[in-house]
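A quick aside before the break. I want you to see a complete sequence-to-structure record at least once, exactly as it would be stored in a machine-readable document. Don't worry about memorizing anything.
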Amino acid sequence: MRKIAVLFLVAALLLVSGCTPAVETAAPGEQPTEVATEPVVQARPIIAVCLPALDNPLMLGFQDAFTNAFGAEYDVQIASADGNPNTQATQVENFTAMQVEFMFIMPVESTSLVPKLIAAREAGISILVAGTDPGTPEAYTGAMMMNQYLAGMYEAYMAKQWVDATYPDSPDASIETLVLESTVNTDAAARSAGLKMLFEPYLKNVNGEYVDEAGNVVGEAGRIANPAYSSKVIMVQAVEAQMFQSGQTAVQNALVTNPDIKLVLAYAGDGAMGASQALIDEFNRGAGISVINDLNEVAVFGVGMIGPEGQAVLDSGTNMTVFRGTIRFGGDLVGRTIEWAGKMLNGEVPGIIYDPLDIVTVIDGKLMAQPIDDTLVFVIPTAQPAEVLLGPPPGP
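That is the input. The structure line, written in tokens, reads:
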């Protein structure tokens, strides 16, 4: 009986452990028999993709591109914060605890996220941030961003060119201009400061200091002319407005007190589309009622081309809109992101990666993009424009 009890105990232990012995005990003089075992499945390393939302073509483009590029080798996990910075902070914490190999993140709001990003880096995770500068190199391995100040200033330069072409004989301070700005964070304030360089006779940096052509801070004696300045414009209002509805409402309200507004500089492409719609609606009120007699005499400019902005600018060629131009940043933003992600997975530490900028306008009925030199100081673009063929995001 004791021998039988021992045999039952051994069998029970084998069942509980879930393991099978590698060999069976052989009788004396016989070779042991190998027993098949379950193969051990190694978990794939994880790539975490933290997006602010999944509600526009660009975000969906990121989701598909990461999955298609790395899904065979990595476990690609997509997280949407649905516009909530607290949700995104929790997602970063969770991915850090999972010890993911690589994290790509477009912050909903970067300032509050910085401590989470620093903790992730301290845990050995390679981090690529897109769209903003977190403010400290401890929070990222690579950071893709545009120069916000220059983006705004190149918008001002587009507006200057339009004013010179449309109102060549207008006196100084005669073209009433509305600025739709944003000061919600440092990046927004920098771009808005760039917009206002349309009204500044001398070249300045983002801090409002006079600079020379190399970007060196100078005194009044060393200041130089600002190529984006137009003496013909005058800023009648500056209003906080970023999105379509706020841009539309801001223009509607501004026309009540300043019915002669001819030019609108918008912080963002979406707000520019709202501003354009407000001007179109005003014109459609009809002759004798509308304060706009000719759509060719009004214009809106913006920054950004991640959705319908490209088509809206193209439609301005036939006055279906008056959104005359935008600054496109990143070029093939999704493609460049995947390229840098691949480099970082191979150990590269890029630091700051500035996005290229393009001036996008309509030339001879075609949507054209003029590349801007990769520089930290404003320079007049000299590259030849190339046609932009609109298509699925991120576009050509």
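Two observations worth writing down. The radius of gyration is 29 Å. The first strand starts at residue 23 and ends at 24. We'll return to this after the break.
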